[in-house]
Design brief:
By secondary structure, the protein is mostly beta strands. It is built from 10 helices and 47 strands. The strands form 11 sheets. It has an 8-stranded mixed sheet, sandwiched between helices. Strands 12-13-14-15-16-17-18 form a 7-stranded antiparallel sheet. Helix 5 crosses helix 6. The protein is globular and about 80 Å long. The mean pLDDT is 94.
């Protein structure tokens, strides 16, 4: 069975175990009505995102038991009707209850929206909290929030709506669809799917996304209206002290050019009683956000609560019009961050600035008025700055730079600060000895591979001391504190963490580690789990991280998997599948850094290429294909040359090891990896024996306003777009290519038309090719039938065009003799 989802109680003494459904449900589960509106896909009967999966059951397990628990040692959540699916489960702030949504998974019953339930963590008994059909849950955008230990704020379907009467489209159109642009300002956007097309779409979108807000008490079942006027509510966020709520909703006029996340939006401050106190912002439709990275919406953004205060609002506002091309100068104000107490704001006070940066602000981690961290970054230079400042000192007070680094440089990553839960149940910076010390947790990238670590960092001397590090032959990493259940501060020597440990033959297991004898001694460890191996037939697969160079001297890495028991010296070369995904870099040094570990466990998904180990293939998984553009150079201007060079180096390495035969190496990838695959077959026709491309984009003229990490438009970089479009080089492809695509792909830029047109071009030029469209599937494939058929097509393709080519050159030469 799948490993359960785990959720620790607020006091960190118990864990909620949620039973996952099968990874690949039957296709029949996806054959439900689906609406594609405003960039969202909705289940109109469920009033929720479409094609949702649900948990099958829940139980409470004390942390004194090993997971999975033995029969009789856990407390099942009872009272849930048979044939129900569980979603959106969460603990109450005091840990005494668990709230969750239920839906019927019984195909013989009519579909209807979620119902709200609650379970006692003392008895495990569950009961319905809001009666249906009077209160059906609306889960398209918002679900529910805890207003306190005994009260929940819920988004419900408007009671005035007739569920069976959505707006109807006339059988005979009343006129043409018309869009006009009379504004001379440029409005560019990427290739968004599922946009609104007309007024009927707009009305349908409103009908299925509108909701009301009600508050319900767990102890009494009392229900009160919070926001009785139906609106398209997208967020309700209570303040840390639960006395105020940030409420946001989108409104007309809708756009036919951008998805709903860019529709006009209002953000308001409400009281916990359900009274609107003051508007925070009213944002117009955002069709004019530049396509360049580091662009943003104008006006207040990221309106949040300050985590170390009972009720203080914080938000950022750009000063450059949201356009990264605007030069604000070094030390200038590109983003300014504001704050104001909720009570003062409700009384008419203005927010005051307290932080600014000449980069794009990305977030704050709070501690107190004397200490907080802020982050800002810049895409063009890959620069990341970590600031330390005193929020209570005012906007003009100096701020110190803790780290100013290139975020592509993995080896210089100092890690991130560890947080703890405070008494308000919010995550804040964990500090020790009067805010002098913090803990940093990181991946520990190095030329020797990843070794996650925990450092004690001195904020006064800016020096660190390593107190824990992952040890070979395991891959270990620390997670959250397990000692902050009370919300009170604790001494460093009392710290304990959740630890995960895995190795190539054993999946992740959890334990709690602490240092009762001090950090110079070995940590004490208490085991929490002993989950079984998810795919025991491949338990003994062989895994090795390879290091090699390409022609220009760039260091490359790959993970080579070989079948259990395989020995290259004894067994000789075997067919090989190279599966990759290119990535852009601004420096050769960063591109060549090791970002892998030989000691991680390999989880094998339903369509993973690693499944072909069972068919005796070697799998070269994730070989790095860095596309580098140093200085003012653009990476994609030499995309094809670098792509081919990386592929040549990877093949040379596996052939050198005696694992692969140069004539029997196939190439494949998903999404941008499929794009890579098609380009390699077009521009390096002699490298691979065949290709498998899943859910890719092949014609860059269909994504004219940028794609992946490309910021330029086709009109700014026409030659680059053309050279990177394998569709335009279909006449150069000679090796067989299998195309697989979800029939309802909703990923930006990878509509199924990409595969359909590419297949037509390949067929038209006599290229051995095949197009497989998977019904009801999007960018990734989920249904059992879809996954099995994908594997069947891949296996058949490799068997036909790759497997028997091992030794083909030698056989041909022998035949000539």
């Amino acid at each position: 069975p799948p490993t359960p989802m785990l959720s620790f109680s607020p006091c960190k003494t118990r864990v909620l175990q949620l039973l996952r459904p099968p990874s690949n449900p039957p296709l029949a589960d996806f054959v439900r009505k689906e609406l594609k509106l405003a960039g969202a896909r909705l289940d109109p009967n469920l009033r929720a995102p479409s094609k949702m999966s649900s948990y099958l059951g829940m139980s409470l397990v004390p942390l004194t038991e090993i997971l999975p628990p033995k029969p009789g040692t856990d407390m099942p959540i009872t009272g849930i009707p048979e044939g129900s699916g569980i979603n959106y489960a969460s603990w109450s702030p005091d840990g005494k209850h668990i709230a969750f949504y239920l839906r019927s998974t019984d195909a013989s019953k009519p579909d209807e929206p979620f119902s709200l339930w609650v379970a006692s963590t003392e008895t495990g008994e569950a009961r319905q909290l809001l009666e249906t059909p009077r209160y059906h849950m609306s889960a398209v955008f918002g679900t529910y929030s805890w207003l306190g230990p005994d009260e929940i704020l819920v988004s419900v379907v408007p009671r005035s709506l007739d569920h069976g009467s959505p707006p109807s489209r006339p059988d005979v159109p009343t006129g043409p669809l018309i869009q006009a642009s009379e504004n001379t300002s440029a409005k560019q956007s990427r290739t968004y799917p599922d946009l609104l097309r007309d007024e009927c779409d707009s009305q349908t979108f409103e009908h299925y996304t509108a909701s009301e807000l009600v508050a319900v008490r767990i102890s009494t079942g009392e229900v009160r209206d919070f926001a009785a006027e139906p609106k398209i509510y997208t967020r309700m966020s209570p303040s840390p002290d639960k006395n105020y709520v940030i409420v946001s909703y989108i409104e007309r006029p809708f756009s036919y050019a951008v998805p709903c996340g860019r529709f006009p939006k209002r953000v308001e401050l409400w009281s916990r009683e359900g009274k609107m106190l003051r508007e925070i912002c009213a944002l117009p439709v955002a069709e004019d956000i530049p396509i360049a990275f580091n662009s943003c919406r104008q006006g207040p953004r990221e309106v949040q609560w300050r985590d170390d205060k009972p009720a203080e609002l914080v938000w950022a506002e750009c000063q450059d019009g949201g356009d990264p091309k605007v030069d604000v100068g070094e030390g200038g104000k590109r983003d300014v961050v504001f704050r104001v107490g909720a009570e003062e704001f409700a009384s008419g006070a203005a927010a005051t600035p307290f932080f600014h940066t000449d980069l794009r602000f990305s977030g704050i981690l709070w501690c107190s008025d004397d200490l907080a961290f802020a982050w800002a970054s810049w895409w063009k230079t890959r620069r990341s700055v970590w600031y330390q400042f005193a929020p209570g000192a005012g906007a003009d007070a100096p701020k110190d730079v803790l780290f100013d680094r290139n975020y592509e440089d993995a080896y210089s990553d100092p890690g991130g600060p560890v947080t703890r839960k405070n008494e308000l149940r919010r995550s804040v910076l964990a500090t020790f000895e009067n805010d002098r010390y913090i803990l940093l947790e990181g991946e520990g990238y190095s030329p020797k591979g990843n070794h996650p670590f925990l450092d004690l960092f001195d904020l006064q001397t800016r020096t660190s001391r390593r107190i824990w590090e992952s040890k070979d032959p395991n891959y270990e990493s620390v997670g959250s504190f397990m000692c902050d259940g009370s919300g009170k501060e604790f001494a460093l020597e009392d710290a304990s963490f959740l630890l995960s440990r895995e190795n190539p033959n054993e999946p992740s297991q959890y334990s709690v580690i602490s240092w009762p004898e001090g950090f110079d001694a070995e940590p004490k460890e208490t085991l929490l789990s002993d989950f079984p191996h998810p795919h025991p037939d491949l338990k003994d697969l062989q895994k090795k991280v390879l290091r090699y160079k390409r022609e220009d001297g760039t260091d490359l890495t790959a993970t080579l998997y070989t079948p259990p028991g395989y020995d290259a010296e004894r067994d000789g070369p075997i067919p090989c599948l190279l599966w990759a995904y290119p990535r852009e870099f601004k420096s050769k040094e960063a591109a060549g850094q090791i970002r892998k570990s030989s000691f991680t466990f390999s989880y094998i998904g339903g369509t993973s290429p690693l499944l072909f180990l069972a068919e005796k293939y070697a799998i070269l998984d994730g070989p790095t294909f860095p596309i580098i553009g140093e200085g003012d150079e653009e990476p994609n201007d030499t995309y094809v040359k670098q792509l081919v060079s990386s592929a040549e180096a990877a093949i040379d390495k596996v052939v050198e090891l005696g694992v692969a035969d140069r004539n029997a190496v196939a190439v494949g990838g998903h999404s941008y990896g499929a794009f890579m695959t098609a380009n390699l077959l077009a521009h390096a026709p002699d490298l691979f024996c065949c290709g498998i491309a899943r859910s890719g984009a092949y014609n860059r003229t269909l994504t004219p306003f940028g794609f992946q990490a490309e910021e330029r438009t086709i009109w700014q970089a026409q030659d680059t777009y053309i050279q990177m479009s394998p569709y335009l080089f279909a006449d150069k492809i000679t090796k067989p290519l299998l195309l697989i695509h979800g029939d309802e792909d909703n990923n930006t830029g990878t509509s199924k038309i990409q595969s359909e047109r590419f297949y037509s071009a390949l067929k038209g030029h006599g290229v051995p090719s095949k197009l497989v469209l998977l019904p009801h599937e999007s960018h990734g494939y989920r249904a059992k039938e879809s996954v099995l058929h994908t594997l069947f097509e891949m296996e058949s393709w490799l068997a036909k065009f790759c497997r028997d080519r091992v030794g083909s050159q030698a056989k041909a030469e022998t035949a000539k003799l």
